[in-house]
Amino acid sequence: MVSFHGIKRLCIITFISIISAIPAYAAQEVNIYSARQAFLIKPMLDAFSQETGIKANVIFAKQGLIERIANEGRNTHADLFLTPDIGPLYDMVNKGLTQAVDSPILGGNIPTQFRDPNGHWFGLTTRSRIIYLAKDRVKQGDILRYEDLVDPKWKGKICTRSGKHSYNLSLIGSMIAIHGEAETEQWLRGVKANLARKPQGNDRAQVKAIKEGVCDIALGNSYYFGNMITNAEKPEQIEWAKSVNLLFPNQSDRGAHMNISGIALTKHAKNKGNAIKLMEFLSGPLAQYMYAQENFEFPVRPGTPKSSLIQQYMGNFKADELSLATIAANRSQASKLVDKVGFDN
Ligand code: FE
Q1: Where are the beta strands (DSSP E) in the chain?
Q2: Do 228 and 241 contact (CB within 8 A), yes or no?
Q3: C-alpha pair distances (Å), 265 with each of 32, 113, 262
Q4: What are the residue ranges spanned by the domains of the chain?
Q5: Structure pTM?
Q6: Distance of CA 170 from the midpoint of ligand 1 (Å)
Q7: Considering the chain, what percentage of its residues have pLDDT values greater than 70?
Q8: Which residue has the higher pLDDT, 8 or 37?
Q9: Centre of ligand 1 from the C-alpha of residue 17, in Å
Q10: CA–centroid distance, residue 85 to ligand 1 (Å)
């Protein structure tokens, strides 16, 4: 016969198991505010959910996520902030919206130059800002460096998106680190003088413009080539990609400019444990392999096999090892230079 004390004990045990069960169920999710389009990260998030049972919810917006996280304050739903550029990660850290993560797994997967020494941001992939060249109009070797873009022989031949876009600000930030502000201003003026049209559109639009004969030379991120040449849904993009050669600039000196996509844990993350699990997963062998295969980016984790497409078109190239911290620190200066020379006008 169960005594009164026995029943009481049973009740307490039941109660404890109920309350310990509640947070366990409620915690089985993680919320990501992403400036990267959701479809790009969905395959990795699905794999994460399958492995861990943790649901990964994504809110995507190209702009305004940092302001949103700041405005939401303690009540933010964002556990993680994901972005395709170092700039926004720095802005997040500088605004005090992140918290440090100390994880031996992240430390083991991500080389030091691709993560914050204080643990506030982590790179997940790298990409190069390369030069796309019209196959039939620019001879191999005619242009080799970012610095060559100012050669007067390219007058009216260059296309690019806005100088104020994050990708260009980082490139200009790297030029400032190497050449200083005054020389970079001259360089920007020289590139502007060679533009075929007012800066406009995204990176793919520049390759389209090469295909259409609007220009012969364009700046663009490396993975867009993979996205275009494999685009069965928009086969016209395959034709754009076929019309260009890829130039990884500055191979005889500092190497091609590199940027990262990366992630940060928000200061007021409600699902901190799950968020760190997801960060670790995204830096791990499976997700890194998927990034390389599906997005044509370069995985940060050493030893990750390259996709065959990357091996074919982007083989081995010399990457600029300039620190991302330096690049990020120069971005506001870069933005002022873009305005000063009227690059986008
Ligand atoms: Fe992009």
Answers
A1: 29-34, 55-60, 80-83, 98-99, 122-134, 158-159, 217-221, 244-247, 258-266, 298-299
A2: yes
A3: 9, 19, 11
A4: 29-126+260-305, 127-256+325-340
A5: 0.85
A6: 13
A7: 92
A8: 37
A9: 47
A10: 8
Give how far Cα 79 sits from Cα of 38, 58, 271, Å.
Answer: 16, 10, 6
H or E element in which residue 52 lies: helix 38-52
- pLDDT exceeds cutoff 50 at 20: no
Kindly report the number of other CB atoms within 10 A of residue 93's CB atom. 18
pLDDT for position 343 = 98
What is the CA(221)–ligand 1 centre distance, in A?
Answer: 7
For domain 29-126+260-305, the CATH class is alpha beta
- One fold for 29-126+260-305 and 127-256+325-340: yes
Q: Average pLDDT for residues 266-292, to the nearest whole number?
A: 96
Superfamily grouping for domain 127-256+325-340: Periplasmic binding protein-like II (3.40.190.10)
Mean pLDDT of 84-106: 95
Q: Cβ–Cβ contacts within 10 Å for residue 316, how many?
A: 8
Is residue 228 within 8 A of residue 211, CB to CB? The reply is no
Name residue 215's beta-bridge partners.
none
pLDDT in tens, 290-324: 998 888 999 999 999 888 888 899 988 999 999 88
> From ligand 1's centre to the CA of 240, what distance in Å?
17
The whole-number pLDDT of residue 260 equals 95
The identity of residue 8, as a single letter, is K
